[in-house]
Amino acid sequence: MAMPMESPITFSNVGQIKWWQRGIFASQTGYVLLALALLLVIMHFASPYFFTEGNMQNVAKNFSFIAIATLGVTFVIITGGIDLSVGSMMCFSAMITSMVMTELSAPGSPAGALFVHMAADGKTVVANVPGLILLVSILAGLGVALIAGLVNGFCIAVLGLSPFVTTLGMLSIVRGLGYVVSNGRGSFPGGPDADYFYAATSGDVLGVPVPFIYLVILALTMAVVLHHTSFGRHVFALGGNEKAAELTGIPVVRVKIEVYVICALAAGLQGIIISGWLGSAPANMATSYELNVIAAAVIGGANLAGGIGGPLGAIVGCVLLEVIRNGLVLAQVSSYWQQTLVGVIIILAVLVDRIRSRMT
Amino acid sequence: MANADSTPVLELTGIGKEFGAIRALHDVDLQVLPGEVVGLMGDNGAGKSTLVKIIAGNFRPSHGDIRFAGNPVHFSRPVDARAVGIEVVYQDLALSDNLTAAANVFLGRELKRKFGPIALLDHKAMAARALELFGELRSETRPDDLVKQMSGGQRQAVAIARTRLSNARLVMMDEPTAAISVRQVEQVLGLIHRLKEQGVAVMLISHRMPDVFAVCDRVVVMRRGEKRADKPIHQTSPEEVTALITGAKEAA
Question: What is the Cα Rg of chain A in Å?
């Protein structure tokens, strides 16, 4: 890239870094993207079904199911933290959403009286604006995620507990609460707004799955936030050198709390979307998804030591995981191999990056 | 040489600090004039860092007054000290390796452009201003390069450029020449001269005698929490300063 301005300095001793040695070309994300492209080509020749419209839709939908949460956890990983509670958070938010929806849609209940009433022929009729029940129940689901995120952030940023331990505790707390409120039975989205709920979570627009559209919008927003706002700059600074961030006057505590809240909200939203696809929110939903989500982020180039990561990497990681899963199914390989292969890829991706940074 | 009749940029009177039963500083008086380079020397535990931290707003003094440019000041946080024009270049430079030079210079006070309700970073303006600052410091540093890939001298320039951003009137540098190469030491001493030319007062905290004697106008020696000497550099010698630091000579 040429310097756009008149340079007051002559660079006699310091060379310009070549374009292929900087930015995405020199990042793990770049290498993994290349590997992914290669894999897609191989898949195309290996299976005639791979590039069919149906299969592509399937792939797009499936990776969107973990990708939104991966975007959230990437924020946390960039600051040098980790959030293990995303899987439980998905389940709990989904559960609260469908329970609130069911509760508000029951004409007899005290809360339901505000939203629905029984018509003369015994049918439930919406008392006010259609979609209001859906909105309130989704806000309730995201609300519990917000609270969990605030607690995580408070413990880590203010009390100074380790992110690993705090969010490990939160994993258990939130999963436990899910069992408590549901008594271990899952819950189902019901009532007059259930159709809107399914349309908003597992429908499609012009053949494109809705979750994929949400993902694209959120990823673009995240790219702008990370690279073009001072909040994003502070997130990177925090991961690069926390002490420096503090000394330069960055509100470290606030930024940390914010990233854990963003992560919890992303996980909550992800859970609500998954429950729309499943048609229910079972109490054991999304168990151990935190591992898939973190694996996807790491494969995509987010550095667990902090300071590196982004939305493209998060998505590339998720796509790679899904294409491998999908590919193994199409190739009629036992799907039990999938987990093994994912582990190998995590190590390979990090190894390649290590070798590259040794060479330069 | 600094102007003798100008108001001191920093004036400390009777500064003392206790941590519980430990007396870290006792009755320190110190004046720093605009454009003056003062070397602050002393062994480990002599009270140098405590003094620096009080001036930088990390600690509040237990006794004594601080005046900045003639006005009494009370700092409760580092941000307060920075607001009046005191900047610190920390020993480990406080840089984020994963960000560019320009991003580091503007860390915590990014330039933004408003687009309706959203404020986005103004990358171009920041890069241009950073390049200008590196030019003033005569350092060959590209604003868009990552700090990770820079030499010790360039990193030092980035940390110093940060202090130039706010037009600081007093810059305190904590061991800027420790752990860098001979050529880079030259660069850093050059940077200190640039600051002096622009009328900025510099406090250089250092263990390296040759560096202090190369750039400072005055040397202040601390020992056991007290100021033991405060002399123009040409009226003293490395031998005398060493004797004062170790305690072989009590005071001068």
Answer: 23
Q: What residue of B is the nearest CA neighbor of A11? A: B140
Q: Which among B213, B166, B214 is positioned nearest to B187, based on CA atoms?
A: B214
- Contact with chain A for residue B83, Cβ under 8 A: no
* Residues A235 and A75 sit within 8 Å (Cβ to Cβ): yes
Q: What is the DSSP code string of B95-163?
A: --TTSBHHHHHTTTS--EEEETTEEEE-HHHHHHHHHHHHHHTT----TTSBGGG--HHHHHHHHHHHH
Q: Of how many residues is chain B composed?
A: 252
What's the CA gap between A185 and B135, in Å, rounded? 68
DSSP state of B241: H
User: CB distance A245–B79 less than 8 Å?
Assistant: no
Chain centroid to Cα A220, Å, comes to 13
- Indicate the average pLDDT of chain A: 85
Say how many CB pairs under 8 Å bridge A and B.
Answer: 97
Q: Is B139 on the interface with A (CB under 8 A)?
A: yes
Q: How far is B38 from chain A (nearest CA, A)?
A: 23
**Contact residues for A48 (Cβ-Cβ < 8 A; gap 6+):** none
Please state, for a pLDDT cut of 90, what percent of chain B lies above it.
12
Backbone angles phi, psi at B118, to 5 degrees: -100, 140
pLDDT per residue as tens digits for the range B104-145? 999 888 888 888 888 899 999 999 999 988 887 777 888 888
| Predicted confidence band of residue B179 (pLDDT cuts 50, 70, 90) | low
Chain A residues with a Cβ under 8 Å from any Cβ in chain B: 1, 3-5, 7-14, 16-17, 22, 224, 227-230, 233-234, 236-237, 239-241, 243-245, 247-250, 307-308
**Are A4 and B90 inside 8 Å of each other by CB?**
no
Complex ipTM tops 0.85: no
Is residue B99 pLDDT above 50, yes or no? yes
Q: Is residue A271 classed as helix, strand or coil in its secondary structure?
A: helix
Alpha-carbon dihedral sign for residues B66, B71, B75, B78: negative
